[in-house]
C-alpha cells in the first residue's frame, strides 16, 4: 500500500449494502471518473499515531484487572464474560468476535448494540425491536447502523459548551475553544491546541468501536461526535435499531446556525471588494457591496477564493475550482449600479472627416475604436493592468504581454505608479462596468434593432376549458404597459406580436392603422413560414387599441373549440422565423397544454415508462428527443430567439424534450399541473409578470478569460456552446447563472494570484449593443489549509448539483450518487490528513468553511431528480433538472436546504421575517405553525393542537377541525396577525424568481407527505438517508480512505 496519499475505498457492498434506501455500493467511486473529478489515482493516507484511539470498556469503573486478564490470555472477552456483563477493551474486540460462534454473533446483532461511556469505561446492553433500523428502505440484517445514544444540549451564545458528566463540573472554556456535546455519561476529553482557522465540536466514533482519546483537536476543523455506538471492527455485522435515547441534533453542524452567525457577524455591513481572495458574506446575509476593483459577489461567487498553486494539489484535495457567474444579477437600490463607458459615434467616419480637421478626426477615430484590449489575450482594460514606462505602455495582468497605450488614452503616472486619472475611469477602478459597443461588435457591423416579444397561445380545448386563455388575455392588457425599458426612457422600445395555435397556427396583423385585427392562418405546419411581416411586430403604444381589441376577441373566437391535439416545434419555428425576418432578437412566450401528438415535425410520443426506474436505462427518461429539437435549439440561439415555456399539462408532457429548447436558449420553464384559473391563476400571473418585467439582455455571447496557469474548461447553465470557449445565450436575465469550472495548465504564483474576467456582449432592451465586464482576483497558495479556509459551501453545492444533473442523462443515477459521496468523503479526508492536527481516528473533523457541506450533499442526493422512485412524476424530475441548470448560488442554497419558519409566535410589531429553524420533523410541534419554502414550493404546516385563536385570526374558522382539505390560499382578514402573516409570505415571494403556490398542510393529513419530503435532515420519503445517517456514512468512507 502506498504511503503517499489515498487509496480508493473498497466496494461498500463488502461492508454495508445500501444506505438510506439507496442501492448497494452507494458510496463507491466508479473505476473511471465520470464528472466533477480531477482524475488521478487516489492514494493511501497515513494512519493516526499509535495509541491515538485506545478506548477501554468495562462493566464497572474498577474492572481494569479483568481487562488485563483477558488481554494476557491473548484473546478478547469470552462469550460467558460478555453474557455476564464483563468487560473487553477496544483492542481485543476482534479477538472477542473470533471467540464467538455464528449463533452468538447473530444474537448480538438481533438483540443488542453497544452504548459507550467514556468516563465510566462501561459496556452496556440495550435491546431494540428487530427490523426497525435507522436507515430507510430495505435493509440487510448484517449492515445496519446503530443510532446515537448520547444527548446533547444546544450551545449557548457566546460560550462554547463542554461535555458534562455527573458530579463533575465542566472545565472553564475560553473563546475559540471547541464546544463538545453534553452527555450524562461523558467526561470531557482534554482540550488541545486551537487555531484561528475555525471552530471545533466533538466528533463521534460513528459506526466503529472506541471513543475519544485525549489528543489535541485539529486547528481548523469542526469535529462532530453524534454519539453513535460502536460496531464491530470489520463492519460486517453492524447493529440496527432505534436507540433508547435519541441524539440531540444540536451536537452536529447546523445550517441555520451558520446562517444566523454570518448574519450577526457581517449583516448590515459594507463589503468592500478591494482585497484579493477575500471570502464574501453568505448569500443569505444582508450586506452592502462597495465596488473597489473586484466584481461584487452578486455577480461572481467561487467555490474557493484561494486556488492551489499546482494541479497536483488540486487533484489531491478534489475541491472543484469553479465560479458561479450571474452577469445580470439584480443590484439593490442602495448599491451603485454599473458605470457605462460610451464609445458610440453619431456620424460616420466619412462625415466626421468632412466636418473636422485631420488631427481631430484622427483623435476621434482612435477613441471610437472601442475598448482598450490586450493585443495577445484580448482581455479588456481593467484594474489588473499595470502601467509602465511613464504611462506609455501597460503590462497585461492576464498574459503579461506589454502593450502600447494609444495616444488618446495616455495619462501620466503618480509616485505610486498609478495613472492620475485611475479613479475617474471606471475600467481602472471598478470590478464591474459596461461599454457601449462599437459597430465592430455588431452583427454585419450594423446596429441591432430593438428586441421583440411574441406571445404564442395554445387555444386547444384543455386551455379553453381551464380558463387559461381568458385569464391570460385579460392580464396582457395591463402587462404590456409594463414592458422593460431602458433607464430614463419614456416608453419601451420592445415590439410585440401575437400567435394562437392548436394543430394550425393563426398570425395576427395588429398594425396601428387598422380598425380591427386581421387573422392569417397557416395550416401547412410541415413547411412553416410567416405569412406577414408588416403589422405583425408592432409598438404597443402605437397599436394599443387594436391589440386590446384582439385580446378581447381571442377567448370568444375559440370558446366552442373541440380540438385537443397540438403542435409545438412548428410554433417555435414560426416565432424564430418572424424574429429572423424582422432582423431582431427577442423572446417567445409559449403557453402550451399537452404533449404535441399532431402530425407535424417534432411530434412526440409518451416515453414515461416507470419500469425503467432504478435500472440502467432510467437515464433515457431525461434525455431530450434527438433530431428536430436539437436543430431547433441551435437555430434559435444563432438568431437570438429565446423561448420561455409555460406548461399546463393534465398528464405526461415530456418536459425533458420540450424544456430543452427553453434551457438551451436561455429561457425559463414553468409548469402548472391540472391548471384551474380559480386555484392557480394568481400564481401563474405572478410568474408571467416577473418574466416580462425582469431585466434581460438578448443575443448574448460570454467569454471567460483567466490569467496564465489555469483556464476555463467546462460550463454549466441555460446555455448553448458551438465551440469550447464562447458561451452563447439567446437571452440572459437577472436570475440566470453560468457555472464555470477551471483547471490548471501550469503553476500559479502566490504573488500574482489568479485573475478571472467575464465579458458579456449583448443587446439591451433598447436595441443597444453593449459589453458588460466583471473582474475578480483570487489568492493562490501551496498550502491546502488556505484553500479549505477560503471555501464557500453554497457555491460548492451549486457546482455539484449542476454537474450531477448533467451527468444523470448519460450515467445511471446510482453512479452519479456514488461520485457525489466519494467526492464529499475525499475532500474531507484530504483536510483531515493535511490540515488537521493528529487526533483519534474516531473523530469526524470538518473544515469550518465546509462543516455543513454533508447536509447539503445529502439533500442533493435525495432531490427529486436523483432519487429513483415510481411515486415521483418523471416530468417533475426533469423539470427540476432543467431549473437547477440555470440557477445561481442563492437559488440552489434555498432549494437544497429549505427555510422552516415558525409562525405560532409571530411578532406582529416586527417587520423582519422570523428566524428559521433546522429543517427536521423534530422541530415541529403539535401546537405550532410553520412555513416551509425552497424557492419553488411553499407550505404552511398546521399542528393538530394549533390554538383556535390563531386559526380564527388567519382562516376565519373556529378551530383546526373546521379547516378544509387542499387549501391553497389565505383569506384577507382585517386583523394584525393575518396582515403580518400575509406580509411575510409576500416578502418571501418577492425574493424568489418563481412565484410559489401556497399549500396549507394539516398535521397527519394525506397532503402532509410532500411537505415532509422537504424536511431534508430526516429520511427521504422516496429513499435517502437522514442527515445523521449520511454523516455517519461519510465518516466511515473517510476512515477507509485514511487507513
Automatic annotation (TrEMBL):
Residues 697-780 form the Sec23/Sec24 beta-sandwich domain. One of its GO terms (biological process) is intracellular protein transport. It is found in: Cytoplasm, Cytosol; Cytoplasmic vesicle, COPII-coated vesicle membrane; Endoplasmic reticulum membrane. Residues 129-195 are annotated as: Disordered. InterPro entries: ADF-H/Gelsolin-like_dom_sf, Beta-sandwich_Sec23_24, Gelsolin-like_dom, Gelsolin-like_dom_sf, Sec23/24_helical_dom, Sec23/24_helical_dom_sf, Sec23/24_trunk_dom, SEC23_SEC24_subfamily. Residues 138-152 have a biased composition (Low complexity). Residues 793-892 form the Sec23/Sec24 helical domain. It holds the Pfam family Sec23_BS. It is a peripheral membrane protein. This is SEC24 homolog D, COPII coat complex component. The lineage of its organism: Eukaryota, Metazoa, Chordata, Craniata, Vertebrata. The gene is SEC24D.
Amino acid at each position: 500500500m502506498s504511503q503517499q496519499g489515498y487509496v480508493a475505498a473498497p466496494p461498500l457492498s463488502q461492508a454495508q449494502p445500501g444506505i438510506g434506501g439507496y442501492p448497494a455500493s452507494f458510496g463507491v467511486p466508479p473505476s473511471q471518473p465520470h464528472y466533477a473529478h480531477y482524475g488521478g489515482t487516489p492514494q493511501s493516507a497515513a494512519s493516526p499515531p499509535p495509541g491515538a484511539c485506545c478506548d477501554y470498556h468495562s462493566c464497572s469503573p474498577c474492572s481494569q484487572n479483568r481487562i488485563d486478564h483477558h488481554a494476557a490470555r491473548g484473546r478478547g472477552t469470552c462469550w460467558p464474560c460478555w453474557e455476564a456483563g464483563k468487560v473487553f477493551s477496544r483492542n481485543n474486540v476482534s479477538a472477542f468476535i473470533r471467540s464467538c460462534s455464528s449463533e452468538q454473533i447473530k444474537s448480538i446483532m438481533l438483540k443488542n448494540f453497544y452504548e459507550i461511556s467514556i468516563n465510566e469505561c462501561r459496556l452496556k446492553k440495550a435491546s431494540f425491536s428487530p427490523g426497525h433500523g435507522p436507515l430507510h428502505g430495505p435493509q440487510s440484517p448484517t449492515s445496519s447502523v446503530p443510532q446515537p445514544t448520547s444527548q446533547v444540549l444546544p450551545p449557548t451564545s457566546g460560550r462554547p459548551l463542554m461535555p458534562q458528566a455527573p458530579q463533575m463540573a465542566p472545565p472553564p472554556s475560553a473563546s475559540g475553544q471547541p464546544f463538545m456535546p453534553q452527555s450524562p455519561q461523558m467526561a470531557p476529553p482534554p482540550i488541545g491546541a486551537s487555531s484561528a482557522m475555525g471552530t471545533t465540536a466533538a466528533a463521534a466514533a460513528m459506526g466503529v468501536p472506541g471513543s475519544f482519546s485525549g489528543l489535541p483537536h485539529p486547528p481548523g476543523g469542526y469535529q462532530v461526535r453524534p454519539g453513535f455506538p460502536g460496531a464491530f471492527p470489520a463492519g460486517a455485522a453492524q447493529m440496527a435499531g432505534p436507540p433508547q435515547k435519541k441524539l440531540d441534533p444540536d451536537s452536529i453542524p447546523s445550517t441555520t446556525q451558520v446562517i444566523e452567525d454570518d448574519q450577526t457577524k457581517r449583516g448590515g455591513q459594507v463589503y468592500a471588494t478591494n482585497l484579493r481572495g477575500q471570502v464574501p458574506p453568505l448569500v443569505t446575509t444582508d450586506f452592502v457591496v462597495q465596488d473597489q476593483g473586484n466584481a461584487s459577489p452578486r455577480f461572481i461567487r467561487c467555490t474557493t477564493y484561494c486556488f492551489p498553486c499546482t494541479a497536483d494539489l488540486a487533484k489531491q484535495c478534489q475541491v472543484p475550482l469553479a465560479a458561479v457567474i450571474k452577469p445580470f444579477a439584480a443590484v439593490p437600490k442602495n448599491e451603485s449600479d454599473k458605470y457605462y463607458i460610451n464609445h458610440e459615434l453619431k456620424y460616420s467616419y466619412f462625415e466626421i472627416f468632412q466636418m473636422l480637421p485631420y488631427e481631430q478626426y484622427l483623435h476621434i477615430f482612435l477613441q471610437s475604436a472601442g475598448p482598450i484590449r490586450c493585443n495577445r489575450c484580448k482581455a479588456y482594460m481593467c484594474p489588473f493592468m499595470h502601467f509602465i514606462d511613464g504611462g506609455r505602455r501597460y503590462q497585461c495582468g492576464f498574459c503579461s504581454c506589454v502593450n502600447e497605450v494609444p495616444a488618446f488614452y495616455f495619462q501620466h503616472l503618480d509616485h505610486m505608479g498609478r495613472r492620475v486619472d485611475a479613479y475617474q475611469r471606471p475600467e481602472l477602478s471598478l470590478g464591474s462596468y459596461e461599454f457601449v459597443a462599437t459597430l465592430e461588435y455588431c452583427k454585419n457591423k450594423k446596429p441591432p434593432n430593438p428586441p421583440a416579444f411574441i406571445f404564442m397561445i395554445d387555444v386547444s380545448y384543455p386551455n379553453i376549458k381551464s380558463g387559461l386563455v381568458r385569464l391570460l388575455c385579460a392580464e396582457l392588457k395591463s402587462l404590456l404597459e409594463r414592458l422593460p425599458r431602458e433607464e430614463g426612457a419614456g416608453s419601451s422600445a420592445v415590439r410585440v406580436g401575437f400567435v394562437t395555435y392548436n394543430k394550425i397556427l393563426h398570425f395576427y396583423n395588429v398594425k396601428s392603422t387598422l380598425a380591427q385585427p386581421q387573422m392569417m392562418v397557416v395550416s401547412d405546419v410541415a413547411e412553416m413560414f410567416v405569412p406577414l411581416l408588416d403589422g405583425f411586430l408592432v409598438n404597443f403604444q402605437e397599436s394599443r387599441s387594436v391589440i386590446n381589441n384582439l385580446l378581447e376577441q381571442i377567448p370568444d373566437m375559440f370558446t366552442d373549440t373541440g380540438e385537443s391535439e397540438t403542435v409545438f416545434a412548428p410554433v417555435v419555428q414560426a416565432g424564430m422565423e418572424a424574429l429572423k425576418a424582422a432582423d431582431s432578437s427577442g423572446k417567445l412566450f409559449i403557453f402550451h397544454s399537452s404533449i404535441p401528438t399532431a402530425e407535424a415535425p417534432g411530434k412526440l410520443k409518451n416515453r414515461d415508462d416507470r419500469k425503467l426506474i432504478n435500472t440502467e436505462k432510467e437515464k433515457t427518461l431525461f434525455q431530450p428527443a434527438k433530431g428536430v429539437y436539437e436543430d431547433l435549439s441551435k437555430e434559435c440561439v444563432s438568431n437570438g430567439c429565446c423561448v420561455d415555456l409555460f406548461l399546463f399539462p393534465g398528464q405526461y408532457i415530456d418536459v425533458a424534450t420540450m424544456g430543452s429548447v427553453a434551457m438551451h436558449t436561455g429561457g425559463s420553464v414553468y409548469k402548472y399541473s391540472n391548471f384551474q384559473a380559480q386555484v392557480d391563476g394568481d400564481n401563474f400571473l405572478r410568474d408571467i409578470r416577473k418574466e416580462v418585467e425582469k431585466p434581460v439582455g438578448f443575443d448574448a455571447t460570454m467569454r471567460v478569460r483567466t490569467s496564465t496557469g489555469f483556464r476555463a474548461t467546462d460550463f454549466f447553465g441555460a446555455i448553448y456552446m458551438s465551440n469550447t470557449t464562447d458561451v452563447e445565450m439567446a437571452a440572459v436575465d437577472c436570475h440566470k447563472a453560468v457555472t464555470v469550472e477551471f483547471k490548471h495548465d501550469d503553476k500559479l504564483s502566490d504573488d500574482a494570484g489568479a485573475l478571472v474576467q467575464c465579458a458579456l456582449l449583448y443587446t439591451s432592451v433598447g436595441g443597444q449593443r453593449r459589453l458588460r465586464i466583471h473582474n475578480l482576483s483570487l489568492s493562490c497558495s501551496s498550502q491546502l489549509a488556505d484553500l479549505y479556509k477560503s471555501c464557500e459551501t453554497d457555491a460548492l453545492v451549486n457546482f455539484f448539483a449542476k454537474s450531477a444533473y448533467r451527468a444523470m442523462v448519460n450515467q445511471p443515477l446510482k453512479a452519479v450518487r456514488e461520485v457525489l459521496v466519494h467526492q464529499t468523503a475525499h475532500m474531507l479526508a484530504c483536510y483531515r490528513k493535511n490540515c488537521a492536527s493528529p487526533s483519534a481516528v474516531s473523530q469526524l473533523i470538518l473544515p469550518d468553511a465546509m462543516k455543513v457541506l454533508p447536509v447539503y450533499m445529502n439533500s442533493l442526493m435525495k432531490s427529486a431528480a436523483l432519487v429513483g422512485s415510481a411515486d415521483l412524476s418523471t416530468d417533475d424530475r426533469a423539470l427540476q433538472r432543467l431549473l437547477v441548470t440555470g440557477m445561481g448560488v442563492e437559488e440552489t442554497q434555498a432549494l437544497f436546504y429549505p427555510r422552516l419558519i415558525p409562525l405560532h409566535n409571530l411578532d406582529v410589531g416586527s417587520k423582519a421575517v422570523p428566524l428559521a429553524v433546522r429543517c427536521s420533523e423534530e422541530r415541529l410541534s403539535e401546537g405550532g405553525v410553520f412555513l416551509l419554502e425552497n424557492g419553488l414550493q411553499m407550505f404552511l404546516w398546521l399542528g393538530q393542537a394549533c390554538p383556535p385563536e390563531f386559526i380564527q385570526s388567519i382562516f376565519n374558522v373556529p378551530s383546526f377541525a373546521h379547516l378544509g382539505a387542499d387549501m391553497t390560499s389565505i383569506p384577507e382578514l382585517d386583523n394584525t396577525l393575518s396582515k403580518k402573516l400575509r406580509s411575510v409570505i409576500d416578502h418571501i415571494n418577492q425574493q424568489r424568481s418563481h412565484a410559489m403556490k401556497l399549500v396549507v398542510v394539516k398535521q397527519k393529513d394525506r397532503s402532509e407527505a410532500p411537505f415532509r419530503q422537504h424536511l431534508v435532515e430526516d429520511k427521504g420519503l422516496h429513499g435517502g438517508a437522514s442527515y445523521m445517517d449520511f454523516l455517519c456514512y461519510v465518516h466511515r468512507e473517510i476512515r477507509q480512505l485514511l487507513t
